[in-house]
UniProtKB/TrEMBL annotation:
Name this polypeptide is given: 1-(5-phosphoribosyl)-5-[(5-phosphoribosylamino)methylideneamino] imidazole-4-carboxamide isomerase
Species for this entry: Chitinophaga varians
Superkingdom of this protein's organism: Bacteria
UniProt-listed SUPFAM superfamilies: Acyl-CoA N-acyltransferases (Nat), Ribulose-phoshate binding barrel
GO molecular function annotations of the record: 1-(5-phosphoribosyl)-5-[(5-phosphoribosylamino)methylideneamino]imidazole-4-carboxamide isomerase activity; acyltransferase activity, transferring groups other than amino-acyl groups
Subcellular location: Cytoplasm
InterPro entries named in the record: Acyl_CoA_acyltransferase (IPR016181), Aldolase_TIM (IPR013785), GNAT_dom (IPR000182), His_biosynth (IPR006062), HisA/PriA (IPR023016), HisA_bact_arch (IPR006063), Isoase_HisA-like (IPR044524), RibuloseP-bd_barrel (IPR011060)
Known pathway: Amino-acid biosynthesis; L-histidine biosynthesis; L-histidine from 5-phospho-alpha-D-ribose 1-diphosphate: step 4/9
Active-site positions on this chain: 150, 272
Gene field: hisA
Length: 380
């Protein structure tokens, strides 16, 4: 899926006509001030499948003629293009996005957070009502420092760049480590089942159950989640969120069924990246899929909790990929985005907070003493 600017041409008008006014001529579906508007399209496989037109004003913007071809409906394209418009408006300090919605589309806009304003009116025999979305900046989310505990054979370890031959054991009792973090004031924990990731099925569920049952930490758990049963085990053992990576790439419909079944707020999508391309299979396989296309397709289906690891940085204490994360946040400012990999000192944490990350996952820098307890507490 690609979203890009388009012109007022026959392709745009034909989608408008075919979806909204199937018996009209192309010239009849032009609107006043089309020449002054900003027009956007969603392309899938090179085909234009969704169109919309945006008309910015002072402090607010109206969009008109949102239309998706019937064969492409139900795939999240309308939601994705409206989020794209909202992002554009926010960058221009526009505080209100609105449309005159058909009565048949009110529930769609309602699910996206739009509210009705005023009363219904009739035009050309169709009932419409104004619907609005406030774009005023929400109260900033609290920046989260999220320590990582990686598990092999029930022990707390760290790998370098995902290499199982480069592992170091830091503590044989992960619960002790988790309790130490809790005592500092940490609220979140990133728990990774490295045995499970290697096997392709959840292995260290007892470690999760122990930590979830004996601490108050909000724990996300990943590694080896490949089936419905794996996911059920993870939630039953106390995980607040399930960390999903490879399945979202290789079996997207299975992944989206989990989002639908358990809710997007229970999913923590991991994007492992090498040279801005998605990597899977314990980082051994780099796909040709752009991280930006990957994120766009998942965000369009409702995913909001996302973390990204630059493989080239992980475990090296060489600093995080600030430029990459800035690009991601620039493209998708509405997501809850957590950075991962490369943090070497407390200055890196401050830099990630400064660019707008909602949190950071830290492992080796804590265990190697590169970030002191006092420094860590300053962000808690």
């Amino acid at each position: 899926m690609q979203i890009r600017r388009i012109g007022v041409d026959d392709a745009l008008l034909q989608v408008r006509r075919d979806v909204l006014y199937p018996h009209a001529t192309l010239s009849a579906v032009t609107v006043e001030h089309d020449a002054d508007g900003l027009h956007f399209g969603v392309f899938e496989g090179g085909q234009l499948v969704t169109v919309v037109s945006l008309f910015p004003g002072k402090g607010e913007a109206q969009f008109r003629k949102l239309a998706t071809l019937p064969a492409a409906q139900g795939k999240g394209y309308g939601k994705a293009i409206l989020e794209h418009l909202a992002d554009i408006c926010r960058k221009e300090n526009i505080q209100l996005l609105w449309c005159n919605a058909r009565d048949t589309a009110v529930s769609f806009y309602d699910r996206l957070g739009y509210t009705t304003r005023g009363n219904y009116f009739v035009k050309d025999g169709i009932n419409f009502i104004r619907m609005e979305l406030s774009l005023e900046k929400p109260v900033a989310k609290r920046f989260e420092v999220i320590p990582a505990i990686d598990i092999i054979d029930g022990k707390c370890v760290r790998l370098t760049q995902g290499d199982y031959s480069q592992q170091k054991i830091y503590n044989e009792h992960p619960l002790e480590v988790a309790k130490e973090f809790e005592a500092l004031g940490v609220r979140r924990l990133h728990l990774v089942d490295l045995d499970g990731a290697k096997k392709g099925a959840v292995v260290n569920w007892k470690v999760l159950e122990n930590i979830a049952g004996k601490t108050s930490l909000v724990t996300d758990f990943g590694g080896g989640i490949k089936t419905d049963k794996d996911l059920e085990i993870v939630y039953e053992c106390g995980a607040a969120l399930a960390t999903i990576g490879s399945v979202a790439v290789k079996s997207p419909e299975l992944f989206f069924s989990w989002v639908e079944r358990f809710g997007a707020d229970k999913i923590f999508l991991g994007a492992d990246v090498k040279d801005e391309k998605i990597a899977v299979g314990g980082w051994l396989e780099t796909t040709g899929l752009s991280v930006f296309d990957f994120l766009a397709s998942n965000i369009a289906r409702g995913v909001q909790n996302i973390f990204c690891t630059d493989i080239a940085k992980d475990g090296l204490l060489a600093g995080p990929s600030i430029d990459l994360y800035k690009k991601i946040l620039g493209e998708f400012p509405a997501i809850s985005f957590v950075a991962s990999g490369g943090v070497s000192n407390i200055g890196d944490v401050a830099a990630l907070q400064e660019i707008g990350c909602h949190g950071v996952i830290i492992g080796k820098a804590i265990y190697e003493g590169k970030i002191s307890t006092a420094e860590l507490k300053s962000f808690l």
